[in-house]
Amino acid sequence: MEFVDILGYVAGLLTTLTFLPQVIKTVKEKSAKDVSLNMFLIAAANQVLWVIYGVLKKDLVIIMTNVLILVLSLTMVFLKLKFGRTTASPSDTL
Amino acid sequence: MEFVDILGYVAGLLTTLTFLPQVIKTVKEKSAKDVSLNMFLIAAANQVLWVIYGVLKKDLVIIMTNVLILVLSLTMVFLKLKFGRTTASPSDTL
Q1: pLDDT, tens only, A11-67
Q2: DSSP secondary structure, A57-84, as one string
Q3: Cα–Cα distance for residue pair A1/A4, rounded to 1 Å
Q4: Which residues from chain A sit within 8 angstroms of residue B57, using beta carbons?
Q5: What domains are there in chain B, each with its CATH number?
Q6: Helix axes A20-29, A60-83, angle to 10 degrees
Q7: Contact (Cβ atoms closer than 8 angstroms) between residue A94 and residue A36
Q8: Which of B15, B21, B52 is the closest to A36 by Cβ?
Q9: Which residue from A4, A68, A74, B43 puts its CA 20 to 30 A from A19's CA?
Q10: Chain A: nearest CA to B78, how far in angstroms?
């Protein structure tokens, strides 16, 4: 395995971990009022495109990374819908 | 330009836009209590690795995408530090 591949896996692991602190924080605090629903909807849609891109490029780093982020993104969409409405306001959905 | 490249640019554009709704929401509401600081610190560190990965792989999609996300991540770190402490609690930094 070359250096660039190891770097890719490390970056991929970090990318995968990016949404994890938000998931943990939201689960613990049961509050997602300040969290943007659109951010995680865009992320989820985007992960699907990146998985297809990874498949076409035969790039396992891209594929593995984005499947895992997709799961975390959908988890945050669920948590936002569950805990994001404690203080309802029109901008809550932004 | 092949289909896979166009797909990459579309995915890259969406990736770039991912953090934008959160930046807009936080600027408008001046509140980031529920937003995870660690998420954006990890994202910023990670974007640097992805830029290096993109340079080594000579992949312009990866490079361009991650430079822009780096800027948005650092913007959110700034906004979290500015607006995230309205209700101070130990878990604010998670």
Answers
A1: 878 888 899 999 999 999 999 999 999 999 999 999 999 999 999 999 887 898 889
A2: TT-HHHHHHHHHHHHHHHHHHHHHHHHT
A3: 8
A4: 4, 8
A5: 3-84 (1.20.1280.290)
A6: 20
A7: yes
A8: B21
A9: A4
A10: 15
